[in-house]
Amino acid sequence: MNAYSKYTAALALAALALTACEKDGDTIYIGSVTDPSVETTATDIVLDENNLEMLALTVFWNENGDITLSDPGVAAPSNAFTNTLQLSASEDFATVYEETMGAGVTSRQFTAGELNSAAIRGGMESGTTAPVYIRIKSVLGPNVAPRYSNVLTVNLTTYLVDLTIGAILDKNQEDTGRTLALTDRENVFAGFLGAASWENWYFRAPGGELWGTAADPGEAFMLGSSSKGEIWNNWFPEPAGCYYTTVNIPANEWTGQLVKSLSLSGDINGEMTYDRHSNAWSYTFEAEARSYSVSISGLSDIYNHSGGDGAPAQTDVPVGFGGQAGALTFGSSASAVTFDVATAGEVSIVLDLSNPKEWTIGTGSLAPVEEAAPMVYLLGIVEPWGFSDYLRLYNEEELSYGGVHYVESLWGWQVGTEVDNWSDVYKMVAGGNASEGKLAMDAQDNITAPENGTYIFDISLKWLTYKLTALTSVSATGMNDDWNLHAMTATETPGVYTYEFEKTADTPWGVKIIFNEDWDLFYGGNGKPGEMCYKRDGFTGDNDFAVGDTVVLTVDLFNATYSYAKK
């Protein structure tokens, strides 16, 4: 039997009665069902970790033949079989990677990264060469034994994977370069992450399996695997900061422990400062050339499933570091750590948490971080061209800018990053349109203008993308802790809307302005009274009024401002 042949042993399903399918008291039988067959043109495959997106393997299979029933008056169901692709490092498929195929699907293409992951999860060691076995399992229905195709054998060379390290991916499932390390518990990974407020992320386990928030039940901090069902991105709560992050795969949950403060005591006394980009704490002091012994302790808030989306489950939980300067430990209390200062003078002591396998403290300096521009300018969305229309930065990690503006453009528009700088501007890459596209500084064409009207802009200078959504409605929500959508009234001034309400209760989470009744499109606060910002937390102000007061909220969408007034 070669690799492309079907099993010669027939599976006589004519003897299997479908007890749920009867006509005039007669039992209906299935017959004339062919065995599944699977094939591929691949024989020897060497995977390259530097070309993870390269196509490595294509597997084909048939549709299991036609189903016929003993009674021609009864219609056979279409796509009756459930096909599952199985891949294993052993001929008996004792350890197996499985992937259920959709109805009518008869092939599966694997990239180098996907095949490496599947092989490891199927029992193969990373960084080795060995045969892997592939087959199709077909199931007709409950209580019906599965049938298996012929088995393909492919010689595969996998690239080496560090099974003690998992990767943090961004909302687009791109690698961020940040990692978590395997703890002393199986399939439990942990480490410190410098997280932005409401930052979206996924976790890729060492074998390649992707973990995010389980769509069912869709609750924060509850994990699900992409191989077992639909998943959404995870999200860190507000505020941004230093989160000791634990991904517990066996428990299907993750925890974020926000380290709010760290202080030094002993030979040095002072409050340390956290730099999120470097994922390090530091303290500068006048030092002598000698050894110093310090204790590092602080307070934290713990966020997990019991606290909900954004509230900590525990607050002011003590934390501390111990161990040795080059191999620190983290826990609920601190012990003395010794490090050396080689030269007297002003010295910075740095607690480096960027490597989840090796936390260190010693003298050093933090790498300078280039500040993101606080806003970008929309040149040419109206006449005359100028720098008066802008978008505020709302996501520093993604270099994302957003807001609402009126567009009446004759020649298309550009994205500027500095007032009066007409040279360093972004234009549209070929293939873009008025709704969305890619940006580049060396592009030749202005961004195509949409029809005249008011639009919600979303621009990312990290991903070099733009997106415009026509504004169709404006609603307010959150007042009095009421999260229903309340339509706002347009005024005679373009872009200015009002909403009148009675103050009846506290507003603990602030107010948001929702666009198009879409909870993904909204203004929140900017951290400054009277200013709004795209996709930020709710803004405050109405708690200054007394219960029973009638309050008018006014927002200016174009200038991203808000105000309250008692009526």
Word description of this protein:
With 567 residues, the protein is mainly beta. The protein has five domains: 13-157, Immunoglobulin-like, CATH 2.60.40.10; 165-256, Immunoglobulin-like (Sandwich); 259-363, no CATH class; 375-470, Immunoglobulin-like, CATH 2.60.40; 474-566, Immunoglobulin-like (Sandwich). It has one helix and 48 strands. The protein has a 15-stranded antiparallel β-sheet that branches. It has an eight-stranded antiparallel barrel with strand order 32-33-34-38-39-37-36-35. A hairpin with an 8-residue loop joins β35 and β36 (425-428). The chain is globular and about 75 Å long. Mean pLDDT is 87; it is low at 1-25, 27-33 and 65-71.
Radius of gyration: 30 Å
**First-residue to last-residue Cα separation:** 87 Å
Shape: globular
Question: Which architecture of the largest domain per CATH?
Answer: Sandwich
- CATH class of the largest domain equals Mainly Beta
- Can you give the helix content as a percent range? under 10%
Number of strands: 48
Which secondary-structure class do the elements indicate? mainly beta
Largest sheet: number of strands, sense, barrel closure: 15 strands, antiparallel
Question: Can you identify the CATH superfamily of the largest domain?
Answer: Immunoglobulins
Arithmetic mean of pLDDT: 87
Number of domains: 5
CATH topology name of the largest domain, in short, is Immunoglobulin-like
Low-confidence stretches: 1-25, 27-33, 65-71
Proportion of beta-strand residues: over 45%
Can you count the helices? Answer: 1
Write the layout of secondary structure elements.
Elements (H helix, E strand, L loop, with lengths): L16 E7 L2 E6 L6 E2 L4 E3 L8 E7 L6 E2 L12 E7 L7 E5 L6 E5 H10 L7 E11 L7 E2 L3 E6 L7 E5 L5 E8 L5 E8 L4 E5 L5 E5 L8 E3 L5 E2 L1 E2 L5 E8 L4 E14 L3 E2 L1 E3 L4 E8 L3 E13 L10 E11 L2 E5 L5 E4 L4 E8 L7 E4 L11 E5 L10 E6 L4 E8 L6 E3 L8 E4 L7 E5 L12 E8 L4 E6 L3 E4 L8 E2 L1 E2 L5 E7 L9 E4 L2 E8 L6 E3 L15 E7 L4 E6 L1
Parallel strand pairs: 4-12
Antiparallel strand pairs: 1-2, 2-6, 3-5, 5-9, 7-8, 7-10, 10-11, 10-12, 13-14, 13-16, 14-15, 15-21, 16-17, 16-20, 17-18, 17-19, 21-22, 22-23, 22-26, 24-25, 25-30, 26-27, 26-29, 27-28, 30-31, 32-33, 32-35, 33-34, 34-38, 35-36, 36-37, 37-39, 38-39, 40-41, 40-44, 42-43, 43-47, 44-45, 45-46, 47-48
